[in-house]
Write a structure and sequence with these properties.
155 residues, Fumarate Reductase Iron-sulfur Protein, Chain B, domain 2, elongated, binds iron/sulfur cluster
């Protein structure tokens, strides 16, 4: 477990986040964990934990949060948003963290549009895979193969 040094914490971080539209309730989080327990990303990725990200942000771990790969994993499904008893709107907080990461130079400026494109691709791929699972045929299989090959530039 990483040691947290009080001298390295940025006490302004939580106020910077909470001042953005959509994050007004962010400091109300009381660490109940409902978001993490409901999150489809946390279900498949043990490193992904919305409750922990909020706690780190409230503590002032600006650099650790904004430079983390974890903030790019959220798929903006809004389940946590709907279930949070404190109305934290975590999906919106995540958008704010991403924008801050780009603005403060922790991530390249094209990252936001890359993520939008990836989310669209993931939905499109899922729809095509559902079609294949419901009615497997070679043509549909080729569509899926071609999509994946194009995305990862397989020759
Ligand atoms: S569900 Fe809301 S209150 Fe509970 S840990 Fe998540 S953000 Fe905090
Ligand atoms: S919006 Fe993000 S953090 Fe919230 S449940 Fe969906 S994937 Fe998880």
């Amino acid at each position: 477990m990483k040691e947290i040094k009080l001298s390295e914490l940025d006490t302004k971080f939580k106020y910077d986040i909470a001042s953005q539209p959509g994050a007004e309730n962010f400091k109300r989080c009381f660490t109940c964990g409902t978001c993490t327990a409901s999150c489809p990303v946390a279900e498949v990725n043990d490193d992904y934990d919305p409750r922990k990200i909020i706690r780190m942000a409230i503590l002032g771990m600006r650099k650790e949060v904004l430079s983390s790969d974890i903030i790019w994993m959220c798929q903006k499904c809004y389940v946590c948003y709907a279930r949070c008893p404190q109305n934290v709107k975590f999906a919106d907080v995540m958008s704010i963290l991403r924008e801050m990461a780009v603005k403060e130079g922790y991530a390249p400026k094209e990252r936001l549009s890359e993520m939008e494109e990836l989310d669209k691709f993931a939905q499109d791929l899922r729809c095509n895979m559902v079609k294949y699972l419901l009615k497997p045929d070679k043509k549909q299989g080729d569509v899926i193969k071609s999509m994946v090959e194009k995305k990862i530039n397989v020759k």
